[in-house]
Amino acid sequence: MISRLLLFILAAAVVAPASARQVRIAASDLLAEFITEPLLAYGDEHSMEFKVDDIGSLPALERLRSDEIDLAIIAVPEDTDVPRDEFRVFPFAYDVAVIAVNQSNPINEISLASLGGIFGANEESNYTTWGDLGLFRLGQSFN
Length: 143
Fold this sequence. Notes:
Layout: E1 5-11, E2 22-27, H1 32-45, E3 49-54, H2 57-65, E4 71-77, E5 88-94, H3 112-119
Parallel strand pairs: 2-3, 2-4
Antiparallel strand pairs: 1-4, 1-5
């Protein structure tokens, strides 16, 4: 499991001009499914086309170096050097996490504080069962 990720948008020194109709993006395969739909919707509203390839972070960097793409959206493990000398770098998120629950679980959303109470070690709340969150099966632990 990747303990901590930094997400970066890397742009070549000359980003696609504002008048460009197509923006070529290569993305981390961890991120592509989350960014593609919003980009396509934005493109529809603004007469732009976004071409997103989910090829992984390292191949995305190589494509950016070879001018095959305009933008790379990558995930970088903590303590990994980001090529700041080569590209314009814009960190935009830290610690990506997706929480999945069984379909029968009635939870629709959860606060960061509650997630901290479930997964964190140094949080104000320390939840050990779904019942601690007011959900069904009061005695069932998170394990």
